[in-house]
């Protein structure tokens, strides 16, 4: 079992930056690929970014590529999402998730989410 707790959300203006964190506890954090997903009001949850167990591979949705950066610190059992040049359409609840495989669906564990609101 892996428990995930997101933090760092808040209200920002368009063009601002924000860094989300996801702290993991339970089984060996470094054994899991980690992902960030988001769900905007009235929309389905969508993939944002993925990082493999070592941090050596990353993958991004086209909508955030070049603006968001996913990273992890296995010594701290934490994965991060650095979000720059935020846009109003980035407004959503952001979730982190863990999976044994380097995949963007069928995640094994989910956090409860943190709300990011970007005003225009």
Strands, total number: 11
Largest sheet: 7 strands, mixed
Number of separate helices: 0
Shape: globular
Order of helices and strands: EEEEEEEEEEE
Sequence stretches where pLDDT stays below 50 over 5 or more residues: none
Alpha carbon gyration radius? 13 Å
Provide the structure class: mainly beta
State which percent range the strand residues make up.
over 45%
Span between N and C termini? Answer: 40 Å
Q: Output mean pLDDT.
A: 96
Helix fraction bin: under 10%
Structure, described:
With 120 residues, this protein is mainly beta. The protein is 0% helix and 52% strand. It has strands at residues 2-7, 10-13, 18-26, 33-39, 46-51, 58-60, 68-73, 78-83, 92-99, 109-110, 114-119. Strands 2, 4, 5, 6, 9, 10 and 11 form a 7-stranded mixed β-sheet that branches. A 4-stranded antiparallel β-sheet has the order 1-3-8-7, with no helix packed on it. The chain is globular. It starts with a strand and ends with a strand.
């Amino acid at each position: 079992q892996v428990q995930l707790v997101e933090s760092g959300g808040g209200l920002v203006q368009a063009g601002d930056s924000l860094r989300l964190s996801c702290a993991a506890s339970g089984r060996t954090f470094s054994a899991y690929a980690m992902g960030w997903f988001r769900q905007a009001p009235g929309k389905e949850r969508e993939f944002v970014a993925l990082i493999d167990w070592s941090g050596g591979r990353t993958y991004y949705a086209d909508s955030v590529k070049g603006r968001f950066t996913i990273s992890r610190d296995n010594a701290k059992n934490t994965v991060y999402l650095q979000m720059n040049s935020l846009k109003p359409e980035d407004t959503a609840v952001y979730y982190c998730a863990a999976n044994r495989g380097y995949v963007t669906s069928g995640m094994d564990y989910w956090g409860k989410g943190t709300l990011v609101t970007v005003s225009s």
